[in-house]
Amino acid sequence: MHNAPPRPDTDRFLADLGDLRRIGAFRTGNHRPTYSPADMEARRWLLARLAEAGLDATIDGIGNVLGRHPGPGPKLLAGSHLETQNQAGWLDGALGVVAALELARGGLPVDVVAFADEEGHYGSFLGSRSFTGLLEEPEIDAARNRYDGTPLRDALAAASLAGLPRLALEEGRYRAFLEMHIEQGTSLESQGMQAGVVTGIVAIWQYRITVEGQQDHAGGTTMAERRDAGLAAVRLLAEIDAEFPRHCGERTVWTTGRIALEPGAPSIIPGRAEILFQFRDIDPATLDRLDGVLRRAVAESNRRERCTARLEVMSQSRPAPCDPAVQDALAAAAEALVPGGWQRMPSGAGHDAQYLARRMPSGMLFVPSIGGISHHWTEDTRPEDLAAGMRVLFEGARRLLAG
Amino acid sequence: MHNAPPRPDTDRFLADLGDLRRIGAFRTGNHRPTYSPADMEARRWLLARLAEAGLDATIDGIGNVLGRHPGPGPKLLAGSHLETQNQAGWLDGALGVVAALELARGGLPVDVVAFADEEGHYGSFLGSRSFTGLLEEPEIDAARNRYDGTPLRDALAAASLAGLPRLALEEGRYRAFLEMHIEQGTSLESQGMQAGVVTGIVAIWQYRITVEGQQDHAGGTTMAERRDAGLAAVRLLAEIDAEFPRHCGERTVWTTGRIALEPGAPSIIPGRAEILFQFRDIDPATLDRLDGVLRRAVAESNRRERCTARLEVMSQSRPAPCDPAVQDALAAAAEALVPGGWQRMPSGAGHDAQYLARRMPSGMLFVPSIGGISHHWTEDTRPEDLAAGMRVLFEGARRLLAG
Fold first, then answer.
1. Is the ipTM of this complex over 0.90?
2. CB pair distance less than 8 Å for A257 and B270
3. Distances (CA, A) of A210 to A260, A295, B236, B265
4. How far apart are CA B272 and CA B266, in angstroms?
5. What domains, with CATH codes, occur in chain A?
6. Between chains, do B258 and A237 touch, taking CB under 8 Å as contact?
7. Which pTM was predicted?
């Protein structure tokens, strides 16, 4: 397609990001819920750009957009998603799609993909799961919009996607999958770094802990007589706070997102407490070890307290390690272009790459997020960081294709 | 009024309690909100019983019912309240009123009182505060029903109480005030005891603690970067749990009734936590000491954590110690009638006696509550415990008058 040596045009890349930002604009961000008119306009915009770039562009029955490179030889797949969370940022997803477009347009044999509904308006990673063979028709039949209850089938019909075939990953076509994304944290920014080579996408193990005690009058019940579910919950969480740092991995995170006491009145001893607790890590052994620490803490609470704590697994996803060779190619590119200004790091949030990683070598490149802001219209990244990330991704892709 | 030596008729006492139980019956309990038709019927029932007993009976402009003993010499005042919480028990309040009636009817020089709205449908201890000179007209003008917003003035008019003068405590008339009440806890029941000589009514010191952190994505923010308001709250509460037992009194109670994390989602680091915390004790020095422990714990949290905890006093009531001589008279009566089956104990809940105690020597006698149940229609006490309590109260009153 090109005679000039492959290279990215970062001005064109930034201009395309700016064009996309105008579709479904919300303040300085975007509001493009999956299959909404704005989302579909963004998909059509991408189809046009892919065709202009000489790719064979198509949209499928779940809304995935794929631009296939017509040339022979080994190829990469690259991309991310186009829809946004409600009233959210302009880069989450869009960045990875436009960067993939620039890889192809800059002269690399790259197929460009925009997966549908990574943001989960209707389901969980519908597009990337469909593409990798992990989405069955009955799930599509049953899925509804999580905000307004619209059936997924109705939304697909309204978006003129009903009846289109669903694209499937072509076995053996790709050497690797690449996804560029904003960090959604402050790790790069706080160290003044421009790129993060992702080691993998963490698993999230989410639990609900319910503590049953005895609701009583706070004045009439002595401390010895009490079965205070709230106090038992606090002691259990303090135990977790003491034990997890002794057993966690270097980048493990754990979070108590909710503590709810019933009935929640000032003069009533809580009869019941509910805790939502999760941890995230990339290493299966660490996940198993922390699950054991949690179970021991609950068992110890049940030996110690006059309340009963019950641990319930809500979900335990799998970690998705990034391919070592893909990591090394991106790391070499980063060291060449932003020497000392990059690090390896896990992704604490989920991405389409975690499903692609089940089918082929996959990797991700992070750029800094200003203030770590994510899923909010103020989300942003400095243009020079976007451009630097684009150059690193391009060079990494070039090395992977050359390797 | 009597020639026979004074003595209580416990069958008559239990029969009267049974009669009162039929007024505003709700399942096995009562629904007599303040100034409701059922409540006013109960007040008229009492006026009739007081008159039958030869007392000079009257109702005042706030709904207080007073039966004045016509004889000369030193007197006691005894009573409690007649209205109930919504759909609540048959003994809370009624027991103390009917027991006072039996003191007078059994031949002791006792004035019988039923204070209005101890249960706080319209205000806080309206009747006993009115009687002791602690309720001003502007407060009556402003008060409204806490459930339906009816102005207190309208309720007084509907109950034909508007315009009646308010009775005031007659200085020097009484040697002491006595109030018999159910325990509303399980302390007596669990030890198989029949009577509790109340040492005082605890003060309640109620606080709100707000912890301000930084709301962030649970996946994108490392443990070191976090400002987790929920975790800071747990650590503060664990510190209170460790420190309070070292500084509390023998019968101090402390309660965290609410912990609320915002936004309360599984994958979001809480940016804000609110805690409702209170402690109760009868001893001012203990209250001050625990206030200091709490303030130190909050200050330590603010030194240690990257979140800011703010302590706010919501209310700090005064403890109302019971008069030692009144306690001793009741204790001697209890030891004579239920030897070994009684104890001294604080009242963890508020009672009319706490306002009377500001104006004269006051005391309370508790009888057991089955299962500690209170403010619920299943509230109950065994008849033999009610009768034993009546005999102890009577003997205690006799000793006080003889002393």
1. no
2. yes
3. 10, 13, 21, 16
4. 14
5. 10-201+320-402 (3.40.630.10), 203-316 (3.30.70.360)
6. no
7. 0.84
